[in-house]
């Protein structure tokens, strides 16, 4: 008797989009299953639920068409988020899901298989878990990942295990570290890049400018754009060197969409971290689009 292949749905829930894919138990991402839909994170809970319903319908259709068995669901979700209770605790994005048990919501969706595990993990932790399993942190006991996007995420591992706080979020938060007249996230996130670019160019307004625009201009040799990335690299290196030394971090990786322009930041970062002797590797994650997928599914497999 031939049994259907076990497959796993991985969801990366972002403030702008929900990304999903079907993975095998070995971490293979079935590229035809990759799906993207608007998350409506600032809309009503009903609209957000419809977005997740679209993700679920797409996954169930792919699994059925390819004669697979859906054996689990892993969800990477931004925080704060109570992992054990499966409840978002955010006041900014997904605020209309505050305190709602998403595990119950998913399992009650029509057509959802009964009695399969649904596991949640903080999105920054998911990236590092994925890199330890399938990516550029393989073979390193003490690793860290910085995720650069709308916010500033950070996750660390010790002896190969990703550390978590009491509700399952990252063990250490760096976004609120004091920096100049504000916090680190004011200088090393989407708004940080735009702020520094605005200061360098003396523009009155940078409305409509995206970090990806600054990255394109840097690629074309624009001096102020290149300086923006260099300065953010220096800021991160300065702010994190003590933490990296204290935690004996051997491998430091960068994730998030902004990290596609990491090479423009690298010189400034390495200059500030040159005396961090524990560091053996500084790089981007193996696959910016798949790292959270791997981490969310690995989290399910550990309990499968």
From TrEMBL:
Pfam families: ROK. Transmembrane segments: none annotated. InterPro entries: ATPase_NBD (IPR043129), ROK (IPR000600). Belongs to the ROK (NagC/XylR) family. This is ROK family protein. It comes from Mariniphaga sediminis.
């Amino acid at each position: 008797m031939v049994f259907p292949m076990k497959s796993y749905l991985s969801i990366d829930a972002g403030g702008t989009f929900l990304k999903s894919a079907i993975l095998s138990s070995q971490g293979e991402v079935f590229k035809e299953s990759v799906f993207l839909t608007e998350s409506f994170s600032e809309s009503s809970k009903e609209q957000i639920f419809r977005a997740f319903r679209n993700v679920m319908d797409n996954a169930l259709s792919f699994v059925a068409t390819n004669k697979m068995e859906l054996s689990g669901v892993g969800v990477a979700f931004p925080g704060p988020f109570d992992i054990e209770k499966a409840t978002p605790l955010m006041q900014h994005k997904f605020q209309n899901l505050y305190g709602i048990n998403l595990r119950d919501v998913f399992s009650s969706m029509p057509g959802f298989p009964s009695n399969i595990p649904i596991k949640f993990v903080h999105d920054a932790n998911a990236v590092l878990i994925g890199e330890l399993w399938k990516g550029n942190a393989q073979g390193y006991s003490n690793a860290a990942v910085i995720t650069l996007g709308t916010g500033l995420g950070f996750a660390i591992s010790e002896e190969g295990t990703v550390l978590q706080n009491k509700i399952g979020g990252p063990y250490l938060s760096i976004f609120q570290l004091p920096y100049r007249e504000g916090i680190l996230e004011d200088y090393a996130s989407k708004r940080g890049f735009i702020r520094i670019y605005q200061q360098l160019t003396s523009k009155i307004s940078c409305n409509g400018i995206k970090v990806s625009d600054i990255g394109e201009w840097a690629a074309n040799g624009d001096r102020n754009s290149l300086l923006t990335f260099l300065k953010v690299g220096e800021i991160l290196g300065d702010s994190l060197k003590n933490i990296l030394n204290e935690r004996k971090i051997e491998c430091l990786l960068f994730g998030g969409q902004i990290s596609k322009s990491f090479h423009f930041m690298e010189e400034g970062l390495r200059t500030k971290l040159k005396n961090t002797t524990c560091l053996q590797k500084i790089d981007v994650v193996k696959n910016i689009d798949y790292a959270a997928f791997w981490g969310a599914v690995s989290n399910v497999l550990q309990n499968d």
